[in-house]
Amino acid sequence: MYCFVTVEAIARIFAQFILFHNWPDLWTGESYDRTQWDESVHDGDVIVCDMGRTVAILVQAWPTVVFGERGEFHELARHTSWATLDDGRYAGSYDVARSVAVENGLIDAYDL
């Protein structure tokens, strides 16, 4: 399953300065590596990889899974949410990631 360009366009409208990186042909390990050297990837950006089955947010230098397969990505610490992490710094990124996950069929539109 691939993410459509329409999601990227919508994501940019609703979340200025949050970039969307769609790497369907990269697995989580390869995507993790790319976040470390690709200068176009920044803190708070949303990453979709693994044929659209994984959606993550770059938290500082660490890609952190939001929806889908964790693979090589990090996870949020227990009792932490995207709304509370770093005083909500990634809340907008989470909204974009959630929209992408709905579009890719990873979650239902009404799931939290």
Description:
By secondary structure, the chain is an alpha+beta fold. The protein has one domain (5-103). The chain is built from 3 helices and 4 strands. It has helices spanning 5-14, 28-37, 91-103, and strands spanning 20-23, 46-49, 54-59, 62-68. Strands 1-2-3-4 form a 4-stranded mixed beta sheet, sandwiched between helices. Helix 1 (5-14) packs antiparallel against helix 3. It is globular, with a radius of gyration of 13 Å. The mean pLDDT is 87.
Query: End-to-end span in angstroms?
Result: 22 Å
Helix and strand run: HEHEEEH
Low-confidence stretches: none
Main beta sheet, described? 4 strands, mixed
State the helicity in percent bands: 25-40%
Number of helices: 3
DSSP E strands, number = 4
As for the number of domains, it is: 1
Secondary structure class reads alpha+beta
Q: What is the residue-averaged pLDDT? A: 87
Spatial order of strands in the largest sheet? 1-2-3-4
Shape: globular
Keywords:
single chain, 4 strands, globular
Task: Write a brief structural summary.
With 112 residues, the chain is an alpha+beta fold. The chain has three helices and four strands; from the N terminus they run αβαβββα. The longest helix has 13 residues, at 91-103.
Topology of this protein?
Elements: H1 5-14, E1 20-23, H2 28-37, E2 46-49, E3 54-59, E4 62-68, H3 91-103
Parallel strand pairs: 1-2
Antiparallel strand pairs: 2-3, 3-4
Helix pairs in contact: 1-3
